[in-house]
Structures are given as structure tokens and as C-alpha cells.
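Table S2 (continued). Query chain:
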Amino acid sequence: VQLQASGGGLVQAGGSLRLSCAASGIVFSGATMGWYRQAPEKQREFVARITRGGKPTYADSVRSRFTISRDNDRAMVYLQMNSLKPEDTAVYYCAADRPPYSGMEYWGKGTLVTVSS
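Corresponding output:
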């Protein structure tokens, strides 16, 4: 299983970035996909997830600013991040569950997002 995240970088506050995650080795169309992040000296936290049916869920801190989407034909999941804030600075991780088990089972290497003030 491989989950390859990309698209991170340095952006000024108020700017936008789009993260991408390419999945392989899983039945992508049947998996719930998610984005999590870990800021320096903080625990990893949930950002957004999207079910196999396309239903999104967001953390309160990013709702209305971030949008998660998926392309089942390409086995890709995306995170469009707008109105970025310095507190969004973190390593962002792509994750996938393994039905019928609950919780995220597979994790990719992260991509660093840095938002300058």
C-alpha cells in the first residue's frame, strides 16, 4: 500500500494550496480517505475525511476554508486549502481505512505546509 502526498510548500497567510494524494495497493473506491496534520510539538489531528460515497467531514478549525474531494478513477484524493492561517502550519498526512474495520489503517509520508504571517 502506498499513499503519496504532495503539494505542500510555503505560502503567505490568506493564500491557498492544493494537496494531492495518490493511492495504490488498496481498493480505492471502497475506502474512506482522510487528511490529518501534525504541527510541531503537537499531536496529530484530524483535518478532513471523505467516504467512499463522497460524503465529506471536516474539523471545526478548517470547515468553510478547506475542501476534500476524490477521484476514484485516478485513485486520488485532494485537499483544497484556502484562506490559510499560520496555525495551519503542519505536516499533512493522507490516510485510508480498511473496510470493514474502523479507523484509518494506512498512512502515507506527509507533506509540509508552512504558512507565514
